[in-house]
Amino acid sequence: MFYTAELYTSRPLKQLWHLLLCVLMLFLLSCEGADTQQQSHAKATAGYVTERAPYVRAASLIEALEENDSHWVDSVFNALTPDERIAQLIIIEAFSDQGPKYEADVLRLIKKYKVGGLIYFQGGPVRQAKLTNKYQAASKVPLFISMDAETGVGMRLDSTVHYPFQQMLGAVADNGLIYSMGAQVAAEFKRLGMHINFAPVADINNNPANPIIGYRAFGEDRLDVTGKSLAFMRGMQENGIIAVAKHFPGHGDTDVDSHHDLPIIPFTKERLDSLELYPFKELIAHGVGGIMVAHMHIPMLDSTQNLPSTLSKPIVKGLLKRDLQFKGLVITDAMVMKGVTKYFKPGEAEARALIAGNDILERLNNVPKAIKAIKEAVARGELSQKELDEKCRRVLRAKQWLGLDKYKPIELDNLYEDLNSTLADSTNRDLAEASITLLKNNKRMLPLRLKKRTRVATVGFGLKNPSFFQEEVKEQISTTDFVISRKAKKKEADALWKKLQKYDVVLVALYGPSINPSNKLGYSKEATALVQKLANSNKAVIALFDNAYALNQFPGIENSRVLIMAYQPHFHSQEAAAKILFGKIPARGKLPVTVNKYFSYGDGISKDKPLIAGP
Questions:
Q1: Active site residue 333
Q2: What distance in Å separates the CA atoms of residue 169 and residue 435, rounded to the nearest whole number?
Q3: Residue ranges of the alpha helices (H) in 515-570?
Q4: What contacts 120, CB < 8 A, 6 or more positions away?
Q5: I need a surface site. Which of 62, 242, 469, 502 has the fewest CB within 10 A?
Q6: Domain 61-418's class?
Q7: In this predicted structure, what is the pLDDT of residue 612?
Q8: Residue range 436-456, pLDDT digits in tens
């Protein structure tokens, strides 16, 4: 102890000890000063977040597009070159059934140009999912994955659910069923790693000669079209998929297909405002995420010769964005269509589309030509870099809202089973039963009350083998089943007519050439004449499993004892048509369009009970 104390009390050690104490005090004072400085700086910069704030997903895409950028959007945007920012505005086509060479070309466009997204067409679900994983892994920025799927993924992919086209849905009174369909479509989209559906069709089809919309529209009444478009849109968007209403400003009243030429819409702004624009205005008011602009020439809105609405600044920036206050994503119709390529070269068309106010270019002819032409438009001062950058940021905001900032590959296990759920099946059955439209029921022929010796035949037109409808009928009663070609010649038609003379009741099913409705059924004059004979026979029950407008292709069909409009040849529609024959379901459908002087919008014998009492 003495030795230690002596050392401590020696003069040199005392000086060293005092020095250490001084250093320690200075260190403590400096720390206190630093704390005070930090508090002062925090007060001076109140509201400025120095740390990375977590992303809070907006309630809607529209809100997300209007927000200040997040760290993810800023960092991705800053990592993109000017050319790559343009490429983010481009969606290219993709198929999953075209083989390795085609897939390599899509991959090249993704890697080399950094395109913003894909729109899938024909293929299979597992093949598409595998390709999506491959394409996403190769992309610098996660890709938008989209599809033109008005009737769900089954419209494009095999082994998946095909829901009804809009005309059949137009016959349904309960829009809640259409919401359910939209929700199911959204679930299937998400399971396939997709984000955008180019639907609903919000066109009002009031022209029976329309070659491109027709059965793709909900009908001819603006309120019906609006209500059903809203239900479908909400079903998708409330379940995480961006809906894109089309074809702005309205493609329903034209007799030209914009895939093949440029339709001219001669109507005044007043007419457009009261009819064609009505559904779009309501969809905008209720938060639709995207709107697709059609390739149509509308002189009353923009008199520039041969200018498609897609490339028109008065229509896109003026009418859609300024007048209607649309804040969502404006997307062009396919830029490969003749409605735009007939008068504008690849590259020039895409540059004009962005100048007009579109945000996203869909399905281009040539990606490098488009990027080059857009850069030249910027150099000429026709399009500002600031405007291009903002479009790019909007795309990135949408991608983050969709969860692409935390992208995960598609899980392939149980994919087929998940895409073919029992809920999807029941939704399809409910829609079919709600849409079946009874147009005639003379002398209360339905429900069928057959005497013991009543002889019944079924005839399927356009078939090689008896249809599911004929098989379902046979489950209920004894029948003799016949089939006949749509292209039948006189000998075949006459022979069948002769055989049918011995039957008391003939159940007739009319089919078109495809699982989808058709504008032209392609019946020979002899087959058509046989339908007419049956309609006039006073013993025929006729069901049309195709486009309602196709009733016009059968003169005299209005004389049928019973006439059922089933709209499509889907399994569930055929099942529902068989059920209605025997009073197992009520007749609830209403004709969504006027076909001719015999069959008008709203027609349909309706009884809210299974046993139908006809007029």
A1: yes
A2: 7
A3: 525-535
A4: 93, 94, 95, 96, 128, 145, 146, 147, 156, 194
A5: 502
A6: alpha beta
A7: 44
A8: 999 999 999 999 999 989 999
Give the number of other CB atoms < 10 A from CB of residue 582: 19
Question: Which amino acid, 351?
Answer: A
Distance CA 576, CA 340 (A): 42
Q: Please confirm, yes or no, whether 162 is among the known catalytic residues.
A: no
Interior/surface letters 249-282, b for 16+ CB within 10 angstroms, e for the rest: bbbbbbebbbeeebbebebeeeebbebbbbbbeb
Contact call for residues 248 and 296 (beta carbons, < 8 A)? no
Domain with CATH 3.20.20.300 in the chain: 61-418
Domain with CATH 3.40.50.1700 in the chain: 436-581
Q: What is the residue whose two structure tokens read 């009031």? A: 206
The CATH number of the domain covering residues in 436-581: 3.40.50.1700
Catalytic residue among 148, 203, 221, 333: 333
- What is d(CA 188, CA 182) in angstroms, rounded to the nearest whole number? 10
pTM: 0.90
Q: What's the token pair of residue 410?
A: 């598609």
One-letter amino acid at 565 equals: M
Nearest alpha-carbon partner for 89 in 108, 115, 71, 69 = 115
Q: Which of 203, 221, 198 is nearest to 213 (CA)?
A: 203
Contact, 143 vs 89, CB < 8 A?
Answer: no
Q: Are strands 562-565 and 437-441 parallel, antiparallel or unpaired?
A: antiparallel
pLDDT digits (tens, 9 = 90+) for 481-500: 999 999 999 999 999 999 99
Catalytic residue among 69, 71, 259, 425: 259
Specify burial of residue 433 (Cβ count, 10 A radius: 0-12, 13-18, 19+).
Answer: buried
